[in-house]
């Protein structure tokens, strides 16, 4: 509640004198201290790491960069875009107004090289002639209603065979490497032995990759003039956005697909979409998956795709975390805390896994034999080495297997 009020307008007041900004920073440290009961002498930088709240100075940079991304996605003639261009200030020695400081910031993050997809994409095809994509989500609904049994591979195969027997089957998929942020997609048409995969711009979302795979598949259909085709994808979010003709993040791609479908229709061809479950051993789907994974290993990016606003924002967020991390690593104060937690942005630093572990240890019910015995999964509940009840206390304090 407090932070949002301090955030408001920070692109404007962020250039204020340090002695003014410090007043706001005090509010943050005060609030954080109240939240966690830290002693008043605790270094603020350590308190921020402990509570997962970045320094306001860095937060302002994040908000400024996001604001920049919003403006960049607008049309050229958007009146507020003017703040991005150089101004009269260059006569002065020190320029720290929004346009200048955000310019430097996004250059440091190398965001300027990145293209932004338009936020409000306009379709060249008039609304009233837009074809509505035909999306078959029956298998998805079945899975949600009846569990995975009904979407076993033989059921799926039978469904595709009976419902789409006369169609050419096309499988699409996308993949992303969480370490390198490489993204790739594939589409395959087993019937005619067409296997295509490409690496696309790094850091795109998998969803974008899935959507792009669909676009490329439709283009192929149009070029080769396949009379009836069904595109099978395991990405429910992509297919749902097609069905609703609406996407929070990539409306530009929804429109591109609808345009493609428009020309498909004009060429008297037919394309349907079908959701298929992943990882059940459906051959086309597995092959597309493997091929998409191969694409991300390619040396260079084959196709550059514009970023959506949310993709840019996640890149910004990552860069901002790096800035915070550097700040935390180079701080002089708070070294006691740094020894305990050197990574920023994790809040109180315990993962769900660790929280669970602590809870189980405290409650004394774990996967040790004493508990397993209670649910009939261990015959005796005893420690195999010591032949006494294998409790938490036994393992931590007494067990001879862990005596060092
Ligand atoms: Zn023991």
Description:
The protein is flat and about 75 Å long. The protein folds into three domains: 142 residues, no CATH class; 180 residues, Nucleotidyltransferase, domain 5, CATH 3.30.420; 51 residues, no CATH class. Helix 5 packs across helix 6. The protein has 404 residues and is α/β, with parallel strands linked by helices. Strand 3 and strand 4 form a beta hairpin. It has a six-stranded mixed sheet, sandwiched between helices. Helix content is 48%, strand content 9%. The two termini are 52 Å apart. The site of zinc ion (ZN) has 7 residues, from loops.
Short description, anyone?
The protein has 404 residues and is α/β, with parallel strands linked by helices. Helix content is 48%, strand content 9%. It has helices at residues 2-7, 10-13, 18-36, 44-51, 56-72, 98-108, 138-146, 153-163, 206-224, 236-244, 251-266, 283-295, 309-330, 335-340, 352-363, 369-374, 392-398, and strands at 135-136, 168-176, 183-189, 194-200, 228-233, 270-275.
Question: How are the SSEs ordered, and which strands pair?
Answer:
Blueprint: H1 2-7, H2 10-13, H3 18-36, H4 44-51, H5 56-72, H6 98-108, E1 135-136, H7 138-146, H8 153-163, E2 168-176, E3 183-189, E4 194-200, H9 206-224, E5 228-233, H10 236-244, H11 251-266, E6 270-275, H12 283-295, H13 309-330, H14 335-340, H15 352-363, H16 369-374, H17 392-398
Parallel strand pairs: 1-6, 2-5, 5-6
Antiparallel strand pairs: 2-3, 3-4
Bound molecules: zinc ion.
Pfam families: RNase_H
GO molecular function, one term: RNA-DNA hybrid ribonuclease activity
InterPro entries: RNaseH_domain
């Amino acid at each position: 509640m407090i932070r949002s009020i301090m955030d408001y307008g920070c692109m404007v007041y962020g250039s204020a004198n340090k002695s003014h900004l410090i007043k706001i920073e005090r509010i943050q440290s005060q609030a954080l201290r109240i939240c966690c009961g830290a002693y008043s002498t605790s270094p603020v930088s350590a308190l921020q790491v402990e509570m997962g709240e970045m320094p306001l100075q860095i937060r302002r940079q994040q908000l400024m960069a996001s604001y920049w991304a919003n403006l960049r996605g607008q049309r050229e003639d958007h009146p507020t875009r003017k703040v991005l261009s150089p101004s009269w200030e260059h006569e002065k020695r020190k320029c720290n107004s929004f346009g200048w400081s955000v310019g430097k910031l996004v250059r440091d993050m190398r965001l300027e090289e990145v293209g932004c997809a338009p936020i409000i994409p306009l379709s060249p095809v008039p609304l009233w002639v837009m074809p509505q994509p035909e999306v078959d989500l029956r298998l998805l609904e079945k899975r949600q209603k009846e569990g995975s049994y009904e979407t076993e591979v033989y059921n799926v195969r039978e469904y595709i065979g009976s419902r789409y027997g006369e169609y050419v089957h096309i499988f699409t998929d996308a993949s992303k490497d969480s370490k390198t942020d490489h993204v790739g997609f594939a589409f395959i048409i087993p019937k005619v032995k067409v296997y295509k995969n490409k690496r696309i711009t790094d850091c795109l979302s998998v969803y974008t990759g899935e959507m792009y795979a669909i676009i490329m598949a439709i283009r192929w259909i149009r070029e080769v003039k396949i009379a009836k085709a069904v595109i099978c994808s395991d990405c429910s979010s992509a297919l749902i956005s097609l069905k609703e003709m609406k996407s929070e993040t990539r409306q530009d791609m929804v429109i591109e697909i609808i345009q493609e479908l428009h020309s498909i229709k004009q060429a008297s061809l037919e394309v349907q979409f079908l959701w298929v479950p992943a990882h059940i051993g459906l051959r086309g789907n597995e092959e597309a998956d493997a091929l998409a994974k191969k694409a991300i290993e390619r040396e260079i990016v084959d196709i550059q795709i514009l970023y959506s606003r949310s993709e840019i924002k996640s890149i910004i967020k990552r860069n901002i975390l790096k800035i915070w991390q550097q700040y935390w690593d180079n701080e002089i104060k708070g070294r006691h805390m740094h020894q305990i937690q050197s990574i920023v942005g994790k809040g109180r630093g315990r993962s769900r896994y660790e929280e669970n572990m602590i809870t189980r240890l405290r409650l004394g019910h774990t996967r040790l034999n004493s508990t397993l015995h209670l649910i009939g999964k261990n015959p005796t509940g005893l420690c195999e080495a010591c032949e006494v009840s294998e409790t938490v206390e036994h393992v931590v304090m007494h067990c001879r297997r862990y005596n060092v």
